[in-house]
Design goal:
Number of strands: 0
Number of domains: 2
Largest sheet: none
Strand content: under 5%
CATH architecture of the largest domain: Orthogonal Bundle
CATH topology of the largest domain: Rna Polymerase Sigma Factor, Chain: A
Number of helices: 9
Helix content: over 70%
């Protein structure tokens, strides 16, 4: 399942008050938000408050049929929390500057851009994986995602030994790289 599909399922679950979806969103995103708040003059309590407020915003958005998530869920949540925290800092007068000038103090734009770049790279890799075909897709999945060793892969895919499986994995990886970088140049 792609990251986008996974995020869409989580949003649907959130809109339906599914406890498992809500817990997954917390588990996958809270530590990032806590680090952000702690690194920018906040406390653990502040981080909990900001994250909770962001979850309410996300819940309200998820309930709207017109809402379309155009980035990763973690990027969207990070953006909400960042805005809420900057607003809170301004209200607490921890900084006497305007919100526009807080960009220099709380440097997160580069982090968001980096998240977006990594997200786009993952999407390109997912497209390349979908184009590579079988058995390469399954073989690479078995090795890199399921963490199977070459002996297990040889047995599962019908290769005579682990060395033949390793050779096939290498050929598949070369094909995947070609597909990925061809897309990368065009993107």
């Amino acid at each position: 399942m792609s990251t986008i599909e996974h995020d869409q399922l989580l949003l649907k679950g959130l809109a339906e008050n599914d406890k498992k979806s809500i817990e997954t969103i917390y588990r996958q995103n809270y530590s990032m938000i806590q680090s952000f708040v702690l690194n920018n003059n906040g406390s653990a309590d502040d981080a909990r408050d900001i994250f909770q407020e962001a979850m309410v915003v996300l819940y309200e958005k998820a309930k709207l049929s017109s809402f379309l998530l155009s980035c990763q869920l973690k990027t969207y949540l990070y953006s909400i929390c960042r805005r809420l925290w900057l607003k809170r800092l301004q209200q607490m007068s921890k900084f006497s500057t305007q919100v526009e000038n807080l960009e220099e103090t709380v440097a997160v734009e580069e982090e968001i851009e980096e998240h977006e770049k990594v997200n786009n790279d993952f999407i390109l890799m997912e497209h390349a994986m979908n184009k590579i075909g079988e058995p390469c897709k399954s073989l690479l999945d078995a090795y890199y995602l399921q963490k199977k060793n070459m002996l297990e892969i040889a047995g599962e895919f019908g290769y005579t030994n682990a060395d033949n499986a390793k050779t096939q994995k290498y050929k598949c990886l070369v094909r995947l790289k070609k597909l990925f970088f061809a897309q990368y140049k065009n993107a």
